[in-house]
Design brief:
The complex is a heterodimer.
Chain A lengths: L16 H17 L1 H26 L5 H17 L10 H21 L7 H9 L14 E5 L4 H13 L4 E4 L3 E5 L7 H4 L11 E5 L3 E5 L2 H4 L8 H20 L3 H9 L8
Antiparallel strand pairs in A: 1-5, 2-3, 3-4, 4-5
Chain B lengths: L2 H11 L4 H10 L3 E2 H8 L3 H13 L3 E8 L2 E8 L19 H4 L2 E4 L5 E5 L6 E8 L6 E6 L2 H8 L9 E2 H7 L7 H13 L3 E3 L1
Antiparallel strand pairs in B: 1-3, 2-3, 4-8, 4-9, 5-6, 6-7
Helix pairs in contact in B: 3-4
The chains are: A alpha+beta, B alpha+beta.
Amino acid sequence: MFSIHKLRADHSIIGLIPALVSLFITALIGIFFGREAALTFLAIVFWGFSAYTFTGLWRTRNPHFIAPALYLLFGGLMIFFKSPASRGNPPPLVSLFILLTVAFLFWTIYLSLTKKVKWRGREILEMAAAPVEETGDGFTNRPLPGGKTNFSKQQILEFAEFASRNLIAIPFMGDNKVVFIPVMMGREFGYMLGLKRDYLDDTWVSFDFDGNVSVNISHSDYMKYQEALSFDQLCASMGDLFIEFIDTHQRGEGMRIISRMDNMRVGIFS
Amino acid sequence: MDFNQAAQLGNYLSKDYAKDFFSLLVNYKDVSASEAASRLGLHIRTAQDFLEAMESLGILAKEEVYEKKRPYFRYRILTKNIRMDIDLSEIEQQQTPANLARKLREKPRSRASFSMARDGEHISQVSLLSGEGRDQKARKISLTRPQGIFLYHLPFPNTEPLSILEIMRKANIPENLAPEIIDIVEVLEKHDALEVD
């Protein structure tokens, strides 16, 4: 399926910053303190990212996070034990670490290419914009009341679990509602680490258990569109999209949602 | 007594010399500004302002008298019972059909910024920006819940405007709360944040 993208091309390197910074610090440590210290630091970085990925697994219940988490864990062990001679002879387990690292690396690459560990915020924004042809700006930082639905609390909660597991959106559970926050690749850190608890300035779609739907599109996300799309229609379309998602999911066709997102042909890192 | 007169009276009653001044006025047949000032240890201008204000409120009467050829005023009290009776309905927002029929929507690129309440179901605060650069100032107005729900349902910029009454009905706001809704509409209109037909 061919789709016309309405978002600007993504040249952001935010998602790469932690890795680049880690490599830079590793290089500095190598220059000033020697190779052994640098590799020790790099191993700790790998374990740190592994712990972070396990956090993602725990928060989203997306089972595919296990592969990158284990790749980083064994990669760290491999780096820590293999390199410097000063650590003595490498333990016999090192060969196993190398084997596991390579295996999980290839599994991780496969999962990345098939978008199993991709946050779908960009797809959501593209899909919301697809039916909007009218331009005219009209941005406001107020949410749009998106009408009423007949979904039960159970249906909304079941979709929340599905959306979280498939990285469609991060669900925030309120006392009487669920708020879905579509997150783009590289923007998930705050939520995954539990540092970001306030979603009000982000893009979100809220379903309360009385059936009321509200939609908010953040200014930064709105500015990602190539054209100043009619804001009113864009918000309405975003609300309709999530209503359609819940409807599709409750019919037992959740995979159809994933398939539609895959068909948007959004890059794996954006 | 209208609100402005009451405010003027209240302002003078709150002065630390007010009780002594009235004591002078009720005990003397009449008094001039210079006599009152010297008796109470005030500047003559202060005494004169006080007497003039009380005269304009109808509490004192003044009479022009001459000392040799120089004229001056003497003041005497007209009543020993000052009543402050304010009719607040005079300043109540008028809930007229015409007022409620005014169509409005948010103005594009307005300098109003809306903050959502924690529950995400209404707007809790609106910040109105004025000035530019370093001189920029933000006036923050905390909203009542009906006002917050009203602004939550306010039509977006560039969309079809709705009347105040239509928005109130859409937001399930009882019509008897119209005065506080009209009040916030007027504030936003004054700060150029709304387009009003």
